[in-house]
Every structure is written in C-alpha cells, then in structure tokens.
Amino acid sequence: MIFSVTRVCARSLTVSVNVSNFKVGKAITFKNISLLQRSYSMSVPDPKFPTLLNSFNLQKKLNEEKNIRLLDCSWHLPTSGRNVQKEYEAAHIPGAILFNIDECADKNTSLPHMLPQPEKFESYVGKRGISNDTHVVVYDTSEIGMYSAQRAWWTFRVFGHEKVSILNGGFKKWEEDDYPVTSEVQKVIEEKFIAKFRAVLVQHYQDVENNLESNEYQVVDARSPGRFQGTEPEPRADIEPGRMPNAINMPFGQILDPETKAVKSQDELEKVETFSGQCFKYHRQV
Predict the structure, then answer these.
(1) How far is Cα 272 from Cα 86, in angstroms, rounded to an integer?
(2) β-pair partners for 182
(3) Whole-number Cα distances in Å, 159 to 132, 156, 202, 224
(4) Contacts of the segment 63-67: beta carbons below 8 A, 24+ positions apart
(5) Cα(85)–Cα(89) distance, rounded to whole angstroms?
(6) What is the pLDDT of residue 30?
(7) 115 or 28: whose pLDDT is higher?
(8) pTM of this prediction?
(9) Are residues 169 and 145 in contact, defined by beta-carbon separation less than 8 angstroms?
(10) DSSP readout, the chain?
(11) Tens digit of pLDDT for each residue in 147-174?
(12) CA distance linking residue 54 with residue 166, whole number of Å
C-alpha cells in the first residue's frame, strides 16, 4: 500500500511517504529551497480532487460527473493464491476498469513493479478511457481495505496527473457501506493521455546509495516492524531480511483503522507510537 502524507517541519519537507509491501517508500528532506517549494506545490492535492474519497462522495460523483474513471488496482502477493483478473470479472464497482500493476510496468528489467516508460503509461491509461482531464479514482480489493491502489495513485502523480483520488477503505468498505457491485465489464472509448514525468517524485538506486553517506533525506520503511527488524520472514525468497541503514519505520498497517478499513484521522495517527515526533499534515478526506 502507498499512502501519501505531506509532512512540513521547521526545516524539512517530506514530499510523500510511499507505503507499499512491494515498494519501500521514502521521505525526502530537501536542502535546496527552490526544489523544496516546487515539490511542496506538487504534493498538495487540488480540493476538487482530494487524495481520499469516501464511499458516499464517490457514489455522488459517479452520479453527477461525466469525466470520471474508476480503476480496480488490486494486486496480491504470489503466495496469496488470489487471482486479480478472476476476482475483477466476478465483482467490481460499476464502471470500474482493471488496472494491472504488473502490466503497467517496465518490462526491460528483472525487477518487479518498476515505473513504465512515459509512452507506455500514456498508451496503457489511454486505452482505459483516461485523458488529462479525467478524474481518476483508484481502489483495490485487499482484506485490510487499502493495499495496492496507492501505488497506482502515486504513478499517476509521477506522470503529471493530479486529478486522482483513492477510495478510502477500498472495495471492502464500499461493500460494507452497501453500495452496488457488478460483474459487467464496461467497454470504454480510448482517450489521449500526455504524460509529464516528475523526476522530483522519484529517487533512483544510486541516489539512495549516495544518501547513506550524505544523509540529505530521510528514508522511511513502511513495512511491518517484524520485517523492518529482520525478525519476520519476507514474502519472497530473493529478499534478504532487514532494512536500509538509517531508515526509520512507519508501518503502513498502523495508518488504517482495522474496523472501518479506512485511513485513521489525524488525531488518531498522531497517537500512534511509531509516528510520534513525526510532524505531518493529513490530506483531508471528502
């Protein structure tokens, strides 16, 4: 899961905390003030396209707005035994189109889930009826509520699309709120999408390696405490236990309310022990 937090402290800015079981997130403290200001402006969502949408307001938008596209961005670990395609075909939110994170990725590397080339992203989302004017709303079918949709949310922002929101609580919360689901797969008309890559939202391997010496920014590990400490087994055989040197742990699971499946309120997040001392600004839900 990837969850974005805009964190503004006295002398630092965290552009985003990317929370994911398949992409360890990062928080970047910029020393260059012009870069800091530019990054901050890109991390604050337009009120018309909030980071989080609850079920009620999503249904309201679906009823009232024409240029909106729902994406089922489900992804599960290989060990889960779940099939994203079959689950989508069996049940999804009406009008939703499947967004396959494994397909919308760079295929010229052996590493999983690497960002696709801009032209590949343009083609992939264009075929799903998305233009630069489309309000995109992403969700997934994780049992915990939100797990992989946030990866798609971040990817859209990397490629310059700010009109993107996350269904708070995901498909599970949508069902619990008694909103409709369907097995009907909607046909869409292909649109033209032009990507504008935002390099400031991405750090490369060499950047992170150099940071071990420079300490220019803070690396945040969003996995569980056990995986962070190296005491819990990794879900993949080719991943060694442990963490990056100097990383801090902000477990993504502690961001969500286990009962509602939704993101906790700012007051609740500030009470989480592992987040104590981390000043952040909560992205308002509507």
Answers:
(1) 37
(2) 92
(3) 10, 5, 11, 29
(4) 65/135, 67/131, 67/133, 67/134, 67/135
(5) 6
(6) 32
(7) 115
(8) 0.81
(9) yes
(10) -----BEEETTEEE------SSS-------SSHHHHHHHHHHHSPPTTS-SEE-HHHHHHHHHH-SSEEEEE-----GGG---HHHHHHH-B-TT-EE--TTTSS-SSSSSTTPPPPHHHHHHHHHTTT--TT-EEEEE---TTS-SSHHHHHHHHHHTT---EEEETTHHHHHHHTT---B-PPPP-----------GGG---HHHHHHHHHH--S--EE-S-HHHHHT-S--SSTT--SS--TT-EE--GGGGB-TTT-SBPPHHHHHT-GGGTT---BPPPB-
(11) 999 999 999 999 999 999 999 999 999 9
(12) 9
Tokens of 96: 């939703």
